[in-house]
Amino acid sequence: MFGDKELIHIHKARALQIANIIVICFAVVVARLGYLQIYKGKLYQKFSQQNRLRKEVVRAPRGMIYDRNDKTLVDNTPRFDAMLTRQFLSNKEATFKKVSKILDMDLSEVKKIIKKSSYQAKYIPIILKKNISQKEVAMIETENETLPGISVNTFISRDYLDKEIGAHALGYISEISQRQLPKYRKRDDVDYKLGDFIGQFGIEEQVDKTIRGDNGFEYVEVDALGRKKKYINQNDLFDGIKNQSPKPGQNIKLTIDRDLQLAGYEALKGTSGSVVAIDIETGEILAMVSTPSFDPSQFSRGLTQKYWNSLINNEENPLRDRNIQEHFSPGSSFKPFTAIAALEEEFITGETQMQCHGYFKFGRRIYRSWKRGNSMKVGVVDSLKNSCNIFYYKIGAELDIDVLAKYYRMFGFGKRTGIKLPREVSGLIPTKEWKLKRNGIPWQGGETLSCAIGQSYILTSTLQLANAYATIATRGKRYRPFIVKEVLDQNQNIVKTMKPELIADLKLKESTWDLIQRGLYRVANSPGGTAFWRRGKGNQMAGKTGTSQVVGATSVQQLYSKCEDKEYKFRHHGVFAAFAPYQNPKIAVAALVEHGCHGSSAAAPVVEKVISKYMEKNMPQFKEKYAKIEREQLIKYIRKRKAAREKAQEAEDE
Amino acid sequence: MNKTFVDLLKKYDYSFLISMLFIFIIGILNLYSATHAHTSETMQGLYKSQILWFVVANIVAIAISFINPKTIFKLTYFAYGVNIILLVLVLILGQKGMGAQRWLVIGGFRLQPSELMKISLALALSKYYCSKSSDRELYLKDLIVPFIITLIPTILIIMQPDLGTGLLLLLIFLVISFYKRLRWKTIGTLFIIGIISGSVMYKFGLKEYQKRRIVTFINPQADAKGGGYNVIQSQIAIGSGQLTGKGFKNSSQASLNYLPENHTDFVFSIFNEEYGFFGSIILITLYVLLLMRFVWLATSVNYFFDSVLAIGLMSIFFWHTFINMCMVMGLSPVVGLPLPLMSYGGSSLLTFGVCIGLATSLSNSRNIF
C-alpha cells in the first residue's frame, strides 16, 4: 500500500496531462475567436452595423364574423401608423419639419411626442400618428430617402360594420395588457407579446382562440437607417433561416339575424335597455342588443383618450351588456311562472275565480293592486291579461317560497343560461335557506307575496326571461341559448356546426300550458289586455308586461307621484317578454327599458318591432293572415261595443 | 487567540476567492450592459439580484472554506444519498419551469438539486476512488461501480428533462476517472462505446427539442423553425467585436434584442462584441489561471481524496466554461450550460460558490487545520 503523498505523486503525470488538455481546449476557443473576430470580423461587422437582420412578426388575419344569412358583421381593414425610430434619426430639424408637414402636425407636437418617449431605448419605434391616410402613407414612402428614421407601420384593424349595433354581443379586441400577459400565456399556451391584439369582450373574447390564427414571421434585412432592404431568402450567412407564413384565423357564422338586430337597436335607440330574441326550437340567439352602446372599431384602432373618457364617464355604462351582465326584478312579467306553480300544485284550476279588488290584507300589511277599485272576479287567464296583483298575492300567501322557487328554477331562473359569452350573471331566486344564510333573518311570509309578482329578491336577466318564455312557447322544452352557429375555414367550408342542446324538458299538465299561453295571448290580443295597444299588426304575440320597481326614492312626494313625473333615475324599469306567433310559436323575445316607467309603453313596442321584423322576414303569409283576422275581430268588437252602448242608451231613453 | 486568528488569516488561501471576484466583476458589468437597454424593468434590474446572489454565494463559500475536508470526507456518501432523494422528489412533485421540472420549493426557497448533484457526484466519486487507493491503472471493470454512481443521477436528471446537466455528470466522471489513471486503451474502448450508445440514444431517447438542437448544430439548413438563428446572431455579435470591441454598453446585437437569452447562455457573445478579441483573451486567461490553480491544488494537498476532489471541482468549472464558449461560437450544440460567474442565475452562482469554498478549504487544510 502507498501513502497518500505517494499516490498523489504517482498521479502527477495525469494532472499535467489534464493541464495540457485544458490549455489545448482553450487554444481551440481562442483560434475560433480569431477566426470569427479577425479573419471574418469585417464581414460580421458589416452585418452588424449596416445590414441588420430583423425578425418581423407577420400577424395572422383574424377570422371574419358573419350573421346567419352570411352578411358580414366584422371584417378586417388595414390601418397605417407613422412611426419614428430615434436610433436612425439624422438631420433632426429638417426631418421633423418635413414629417410634421406631411402628417399635418405642429412641429412642437412632434417634439413633444419624442421628448415623452426619450426615456425609452433608442431602437424602439415610437408612434408619431395613428391611423394616417393612404395619401400620407404614399408621401412618406416616396420621401423615404429624406426621412431617415420615419417609417410606416401597417397592420390589420378590425372593422365592425354596424358600429354600435350589437357591439356587446360581438365584443371588441384590443392590445393585451401587461397584467393579462402572464395570465393569458398560461391559459392559451401561446407566447403572446405586448402589442398583440386579443378578444376582450363578447364573441371576440369567447372564440378568440378559434379566430385569432397563428402569427408567422419573416426575416427582413434593414439598413443602417432602419429601412427595409430586402426580405431574406438566400444568402451565404442566412442559410437555414426560413420564413413562416401566418395561419389565418377561422371565420365565424353567428345565429344572429342582422335585420332583427337593426330593428331591436332602432327600437331601443335613445334609451338604456336591452332586447334579446331566441329561436325557441333551437335556442339560437337571433338578436341581442344592449343600449347605450359603443363602437368596437375604436378599440382596435387605438382608442382616443376622449372616446374612452366618454365611455367611462357615462353613468349609463355603455360597456355593460345589459342582456347577460345585469339583472333586475322582472315584475309582473314573472306572473306566468307563479301561475304555473299554482296550477301544478293544484292550488288553483282553470275554473278558480278570485276577487280582484283593490287590496289584499296579509298579517298587518296591506298589499295593493296596481289598479284601484277594480272589483271583479277573474280566473287565471284574465289574471294575466289584467295583471291582477291580488290573484298572485293569494297564491303567494298559500304556497311556500321554496315550492315557488322550485318552479322558477325549472324555467332556468336563478342560474346562468350557459350561453357561451363571458361574464354572464346568474340572477337570483331566493329560498328560505338562502335568506337565512345571507341575512341571518328567517324568511317573512310577506316576502313570498312580493316574490309572486316578481319583486323583492327575485332577479332575472333579459336573456333568462326570453328563454323562460321560449319554454312556455315550446311547452316545456328549453335549449341552451347559443350565438355561434358555425365555424368556417378560409374557403368558407364548414369546419364545425354547433348543435342545439336541450337542457330541460318539463312535464307539466297540458291544461297548464293551455291556460298560461291563452292568458299571455290575451295580454296583447284581447281588448283590455295590458299590451293590447302595443300588439302591432299580425304578430299574434303572447306576452306579459312588467314593471321593475326602482327603490331609492328620496321624498314622499317622489314616491307617490306619477312615474313620468319622477326624477329619471327613480323611474321604474319597463319589462316585456313574449313569444310569437301564438298558434305556431317560433320566436321568444324579452326587453327591458330602464326607467321606462311601464312595460306596456316602453318595453312592449321594442319586443313588437323585433317580432314584427321576424314575421315579415320569415312568415309573411302568416303575418298577413293574422292581420286580417285581427282586423275582423276588432271590427266585431267595436260593433258589439256600439250595440251594447246603443242598447244602454235606449234603455236610458225609455 | 487573537494571534492564532491573525495567523489563520495569513495562512488562508485567498486565490480562489479573488479569482471568483475578478471574473464576477467582469460578469456583472457585462450583464448590466446586456440588459440595460431591455424594455422590461425586471430585465433591467437583473444585475441587482445577481449582485445579491453573489453576496450569498460568497458567504456560503467562506463558510465552507473553514470546514475541515475530513468532515466533508465523512459526509460524502450521505450528501450523495440525500441529493439522489431530492432528484427523485423533483421528478415526483417538482415545479414546472421552462417546460422542464427542475425546481423543488422548500419553504418558499427554490432549490435545483441537479445543480448540487454536480458537486455531490464529484465528492462521491473522489471518495470511492480513494477507498480503492491502489496505484494500479484502471481497467474497464474498475469503472463499473463509479459508472453506476454516475448513471443514477444522470438518468434522473435527463428524465427532468435536462440533457445538458445529465451529460455534464458523465463528463465529470470521465475527467475524474482519467485522473485516476484510466488506461489509454480503455479510453479508446469507451470512445467507441460512447459513439454507439450516443447514436442509439439520439434515435430513441431524446426529446424533439433536444434532437433539434443537435440537428441545428450539425446542419443549420435542416432547421426550418429558426433554431439556427440564435447561433448565427451570436456569431455576428462575436465577429463584429473584432480586435478591440465596440465598448461598454455598445452591443447593438444585445440592444436590438437580436440575441435572446443574452443574459444567460449568450453572455459570452455580448462580452466579445463589446471587448473584442483582446478582451476575450484576458477573460479566458482568468479562467485558465483559475483552472490551473485547481490542478496545482490537486498535486499539492496531503490526502488523495483531497487531490481527486480538486480535479473533480476543476472539471465542473472546466466543462461549463468550455462548452458554453463552444456553443456560442457554433462549435457545439446549444445545450444550455451557463458560463461560470458570468451568466445570470442564482443557482449556478451558488454552485460555483460552493466549488470555490471547497477548493479553499482543501487548500487551507494543508496549513491551517
What does the secondary structure layout of this molecule look like, with pairings?
The complex is a heterodimer of chains A (654) and B (369).
Chain A: H1 4-10, H2 12-39, H3 41-49, E1 52-58, E2 65-66, E3 72-84, H4 92-102, H5 107-116, E4 126-129, H6 134-142, E5 150-160, H7 167-170, E6 173-175, H8 180-188, E7 197-199, H9 202-206, H10 208-212, E8 216-222, E9 228-231, E10 251-254, H11 258-268, E11 273-279, E12 285-291, H12 297-300, H13 305-312, H14 335-344, E13 354-355, E14 359-362, E15 365-368, E16 377-378, H15 380-385, H16 389-398, H17 401-410, H18 432-439, H19 445-452, H20 462-473, E17 477-479, E18 484-488, E19 494-497, E20 502-505, H21 510-525, E21 542-548, H22 556-560, E22 573-580, E23 587-593, H23 599-618, H24 620-653
Parallel strand pairs in A: 2-10
Antiparallel strand pairs in A: 1-8, 2-3, 3-4, 3-5, 6-7, 8-9, 10-18, 11-12, 11-23, 13-16, 14-15, 17-20, 18-19, 21-22, 22-23
Helix pairs in contact in A: 4-5, 11-23, 14-17, 14-21, 16-19, 23-24
Chain B: H1 2-11, H2 15-35, H3 41-44, H4 46-65, H5 69-93, E1 95-97, E2 100-106, E3 109-111, H6 113-131, H7 144-158, H8 163-179, H9 184-204, H10 208-218, H11 228-241, H12 252-255, H13 267-300, H14 304-328, H15 346-365
Antiparallel strand pairs in B: 1-2, 2-3
Question: Explain this structure to me?
Answer:
By secondary structure, chain A is α+β, with helices and mostly antiparallel strands. Chain A has four domains: 35 residues; 142 residues, Penicillin-binding protein 2a (Domain 2), CATH 3.90.1310; 361 residues, DD-peptidase/beta-lactamase superfamily (Beta-lactamase, 3-Layer(aba) Sandwich), CATH 3.40.710.10; 33 residues. In chain A, 40% of the residues lie in helices and 19% in strands. In chain A, the strands form seven sheets. In chain A, strands 2, 3, 4, 5, 10, 18 and 19 form a seven-stranded mixed beta sheet that branches. Chain A has a five-stranded antiparallel beta sheet with strand order 12-11-23-22-21, with helices on both faces. A three-stranded antiparallel beta sheet of chain A has the order 1-8-9. In chain A, helix 14 crosses helix 17. The longest helix of chain A has 34 residues. Chain A is elongated and about 135 Å long. The N and C termini of chain A lie far apart (149 Å). The model of chain A has no long low-confidence stretch (mean pLDDT 85). Chain B has 369 residues and is mainly alpha-helical. Chain B has one domain. The radius of gyration of chain B is 21 Å and the shape is globular. The two termini of chain B are 15 Å apart. The chains are: A alpha+beta (654), B mainly alpha (369). Chains A and B meet through helix 1, helix 2, helix 3 and strand 1 of A and helix 8, helix 11, helix 12, helix 13 and helix 14 of B.
